[in-house]
UniProtKB/TrEMBL annotation:
Positions bearing N6-carboxylysine: K150
Entry keywords, A to Z: Hydrolase, Metal-binding
The keyword Hydrolase is assigned to this record: yes
NCBIfam families assigned: D-hydantoinase
Source organism, top-level taxon: Bacteria
Pfam families, alphabetized: Amidohydro_1
Organism listed in the record: Prauserella muralis
Name of the protein in its database record: Dihydropyrimidinase
Cofactors demanded by this protein: Zn(2+)
Gene Ontology molecular-function annotations: hydrolase activity, acting on carbon-nitrogen (but not peptide) bonds, in cyclic amides; metal ion binding
Keyword set includes Hydrolase: yes
Family, per entry: Belongs to the metallo-dependent hydrolases superfamily. Hydantoinase/dihydropyrimidinase family.
Gene Ontology CC annotations of this record: cytosol
Length: 461
């Protein structure tokens, strides 16, 4: 079965060229000058459109347990929504509960995802119980294709690790070549600010932002970088939201340390003003780190341009406004933390191209090529080249669309971008050679997506 994508502008992390893409089965057979190939079983006309490697969202939480509930998207609904938005790979997080082993956790997450995913998927491992057994198991995880471990400096009593525990895990990461991913917020200090606000009767959603000030993200980021320096571990800061944290990352990178960071569309486009929306509506925007003052956005766009921010992921972790966010009415500390976004990452970052914040090549790089390299999937993913998986997006850069819960495909009852009109829209999506979205219709199926066993980070020497 051969598919020819003809007449489009083929994008990569280094630029754009008019070319045709020939797909044979599940992989790309050739990227060639227009007209070189004429024979195929299916011909897709991409005239006037971009042809780019499918998006890789390296940070999602499908059906994740949190505070007695679960994030609203299952692997089935969440990966379908991702495909609609031009994302053809997700890397989700297996979550170690305290007192359980990493390998039993991994088994559990394989069970959840297997047979359900519309697109390919991998796992990171959340380490919340550092002990001799866990550290030993990190080796087996790496051997099983789970080569990155997330730790938390926030959420004391739940996911939180002490500096000593982080140090131990980092030593193991150095030994195995694995990457430590860090949620960098000073949770010990934050918990005191939260208790103080609640004691003063301040329970509304905006307090979530006010009790997690950017300085405490900056401080934790610096501390994580220091621990990584001492141990030699590669470090990847997740969902960086604050200028203070960016400055710490930039300095470490300037000094040659293996420190990387991602940001998310919500930090580029939304602000604490959204958290302050009246009538509990701010709860829709509760995620950690919190949405910041608007002036941070310009710093984050600059960080994307300078590569101090290398990746854009979503931290997709949707909770319905009704029933789930409701749990925190009157007490912001009980609002489930997380926002939906897996469907709109490619579109929102393309909007950054339209606005002149980033180049087309940088769009592809931050949303596909770099996440592939960062998490050991390149060149199978992240590039349109002979032999690569045929994960391909045909994108109409001129189409207009308005984001809304009424039209999105995520299993959540609100959109964080309700009413926002953007330029650019996905036309067609191929996952390993199969058309899964085309012209507003879904042709994918649960179970098409396969588990991706990942290598180590490909930015290390
Ligand atoms: Zn997350």
């Amino acid at each position: 079965m051969r598919t020819l994508i003809r007449g489009g502008t083929v994008l990569s992390s280094t630029g754009a060229a008019t070319a045709d893409v020939l797909v044979d089965g599940e992989t790309i057979a050739a990227v060639a000058a227009p007209g070189v190939f004429t024979e195929a079983d299916t011909v897709l006309d991409a005239t006037g459109r971009y042809v780019l490697p499918g998006g890789i969202d390296a940070h999602t939480h499908m059906e994740m347990p949190f505070g007695g509930t679960f994030s609203a998207d299952t692997f089935e609904t969440g990966t379908r929504a991702a495909a609609w938005g031009g994302t053809t790979t997700i890397i989700d997080f297996a979550v170690q509960a305290k007192g359980t082993s990493l390998l039993s956790t991994l088994d559990k997450w394989h069970e959840k995802a297997e047979g359900d995913c519309a697109i390919d998927y991998g796992f990171h491992m959340i380490v919340s119980d550092v002990n001799d057994g866990t550290l030993k198991e990190m080796e087996s995880c790496v051997d099983s294709g789970v080569s990155s471990f997330k730790m938390f400096m926030a959420y004391p009593g739940v996911f939180y690790s002490t500096d000593g525990e982080i140090l131990r895990a980092m030593h193991k990461a150095t030994e195995t070549g694995a990457t430590i991913m860090m949620h960098a917020e000073n949770g010990i200090a934050i918990d005191q600010l939260v208790a103080r606000a609640l004691a003063e009767g301040k329970g509304e959603p905006v307090q979530h932002g006010l009790t997690r000030p950017p300085e405490l993200e900056g401080e934790a980021t610096s501390r994580a970088i220091t621990l990584a320096k001492v141990t030699g571990a590669p470090l990847y800061i997740v969902h960086l939201s604050a200028a203070q944290a960016l400055a710490a990352v930039a300095q470490a990178r300037d000094e040659g340390q293996n420190v990387f960071a991602e940001t998310c569309p919500q930090y580029l486009y939304l602000s604490i003003e959204d958290l302050a929306k009246p009538d509990f509506e701010g709860a829709k925007y509760v995620a950690s780190p919190p949405l910041r003052e608007k002036h941070h956005q310009a710093d984050l766009w600059r960080g994307l341009r300078t590569n101090d921010l290398s990746v854009v992921s979503t931290d997709h972790c949707p909770f319905c406004f009704k029933d789930q966010k409701e749990l925190g009415r009157g007490d912001f500390s009980k609002i489930p933390n997380g926002m939906p976004g897996v469907e709109h990452r490619m579109d929102l970052l393309h909007q950054g191209v339209v606005a002149g914040e980033i180049s087309l090549a940088r769009w592809v790089e931050a949303c596909s090529t770099t996440p592939a390299r960062m998490f050991g999937l390149y060149p199978r993913k992240g590039v349109l080249a002979p032999g690569s998986d045929a994960d391909i997006v045909i994108y109409d850069p001129a189409a207009e669309q308005t984001l809304s819960a009424a039209t999105h495909h995520m299993a959540v009852d609100y959109s964080a971008y309700e009413g926002m009109t953007i330029t650019g829209k996905v036309d067609t999506v191929l996952s390993r050679g199969r058309v899964v979205v085309d012209g507003g219709e879904y042709h994918g199926s649960a179970g098409h997506g396969r588990f991706l066993s990942r290598d180590l980070c490909q930015y290390l020497g």
